[in-house]
């Protein structure tokens, strides 16, 4: 009997020699060590070259890290693995280059916005306080933002949901193509164009004055294509077998959509609506054109000028005093917190309503 070896052999006319199936690999601690070395090299090169900008130091360190990783991997692991590590290092570098400015902006907003952010600031308006003086609050802006975004959601969410249901479940022929085309066009509409459209129709033609409802209509225009696209993708993810099983039992199609399709995709639909709300919460241009802003509290969104958080930030920044800057930073911090809460709520609803995969 002949013995069977677990390692292949290569013969070159003489005695056979085994070939190893294992390839040399760099240790797992190599990337972080290379990152530290690249950071030191970037600082050293920056100092030696007389570069004053820390951003330039960081870019030099990123280049050293990427090309150093590729060269070391090519020498030890071979060309194929080196290309893989090159792509990985470039992805991590791009991620850090994107996160660092965001983290810096968030840190600056928290540091400067916390100076005046307290209970008084959240529960009072500007009232008759002169803009150059310290004090005042954003209560009127919070009320305006909640009412305008809420009205925009009441307008855009049902229309977007029904449009997506039509495109997925019934859309055939030229009408569906036309609707899809206009949804694609609306996705790229600048916010100022939506504001100008409502301004020309609602205020200039129909002679209605500025109000929170006018701003809500322009925000709804920006929100609708996001709701349509997100809902459309969620409905497409529902397996056709569920629809066919319901129809095979003699259930009408409208009831199948209402009782089977929508409950299955409700988590993704809700997430899409929440993300659309977060997208319009920081819009300033249409609010500036249609709402105008007010220093006092206006709880009626259908009559009179009203304030909103992004417009409040813009107006306070225009004033230019130290007190106005502090109020602008604090309002920006509240707006960021509002958007973050919406995103967390969307994540939570998506996880709560996600289909259970376990048995």
Description:
- The protein has 359 residues and is mainly alpha-helical.
- The protein is built from 13 helices and 2 strands, in the order ββααααααααααααα.
- Strands 1-2 form a two-stranded antiparallel sheet.
- Strand 1 (9-10) and strand 2 form a beta hairpin.
- The longest helix has 35 residues, at 79-113.
- The radius of gyration is 29 Å and the shape is flat.
Please give the structural blueprint:
Elements (H helix, E strand, L loop, with lengths): L8 E2 L6 E2 L11 H19 L5 H23 L2 H35 L5 H5 L15 H32 L2 H15 L3 H15 L6 H25 L3 H9 L4 H28 L4 H6 L18 H11 L2 H32 L6
Antiparallel strand pairs: 1-2
Helix pairs in contact: 1-2, 2-3, 3-13, 5-8, 5-10, 6-8, 7-8, 8-10, 9-10, 10-13, 12-13
The helix fraction, in percent, is: over 70%
Number of helices: 13
Shape: flat
* Helix and strand element order: EEHHHHHHHHHHHHH
Q: What is the number of beta strands?
A: 2
Radius of gyration: 29 Å
Quaternary: single chain
Low-confidence stretches: 1-7
Which descriptors apply to this entry?
71% helix, mainly alpha, two-stranded antiparallel ribbon, single chain, disordered N terminus, 359 residues
